[in-house]
Amino acid sequence: MLKRTITGTIYVISVVAAIYLPPLACAIYFAVVAALGLWEFYSNLQKTTTISPNFIGGFLVAVATYSMFLGRKYSAIALLSVALFYIVISELYRKKENPFTNIAYTVFGVMYIVVPLACTNLIRTQLEPIILMSVFIFAWCNDTFAYLTGMKFGKHKLFERISPKKTWEGFIGGFCFVVIAAIIIAQFTTALPVFDLIVIAIITSVIGTYGDLIESMFKRQIGVKDSGNILPGHGGILDRFDIMLLVLPAVTVYLMIIHSLHI
Question: Are the C-beta atoms of residues 64 and 76 closer than 8 Å to each other?
Answer without folding.
Answer: yes
